[in-house]
Amino acid sequence: MEKVFTAAEEKMGKTVSVLNAEYAAIRAGRANASVLDKIKVDYYGTPTPINQMAAVSVAEARILTIQPWDTSTLHPIEKAIMASDIGINPQNDGRIIRLVFPQLTEERRKDLCKDVKKMAEDSRVAIRSIRRDCIDKVKKMEKSSEITEDDLKYAEKKLQDITDKYIKEIDKASDEKEKDIMEI
Fold it and tell me: CA-to-CA distance for 156 and 174, rounded, in angstroms?
């Protein structure tokens, strides 16, 4: 029965990690290197993440600089950024690429908050689905007389406690991201 709890914790933890990664990729008007994480550059025929080809740093609050280790990759990096969906035009000075993040409008902030809430709700649904699957496993164990009815009740309560813990983490992450978006 402990295997069920461990599996539930592991899967729910992964769900929260995925949500946090999605939140990190949301452009909130402040320069953040993680917006480049999903962008791959064709580097000698291999799709390569920008952070493996260049030094990425935050120069100012709204300016991200990308300094390639090999200057011949400047144009492929620039093309990859322009082809991506981050919506920022790179500025290339021959050595460094600068990404200037524009201020967000109030309407755009509200749209981003809606997206944040939707991602949080999708994660909550995933967590509840994991709980339901685990409870089904425990019920099957009880039906096949591997565990007692008391063990079943204990397992259901413990799985609910685990679920509540991860839902609180999701709520906290969601609230922090919304606050981050709205206060810029």
Answer: 27
d(CA 73, CA 71): 5
Confidence of residue 117 (pLDDT cuts 50, 70, 90): very high
pLDDT at 29 over 70: no
Count of positions (residues) in the chain: 184
pLDDT at 48 over 70: yes
Three-class SS of residue 140?
A: helix
Question: Cα 131 from chain centroid?
Answer: 21
What is the spatial distance between Cα 39 and Cα 143, in angstroms, rounded to a whole number?
50
What is the pairing mode between strands 54-60 and 91-92? unpaired
How far is residue 174's CA from residue 117's CA, in Å, rounded to a whole number? 7
Instruction: Give the whole-angstrom CA distance, residue 147 versus residue 161.
Output: 20
pTM over the 0.85 mark: no
Q: What is the pLDDT of residue 184?
A: 59
Contacts of 177 by beta carbon, 8 Å cutoff, 6+ apart: 23, 26, 28, 116
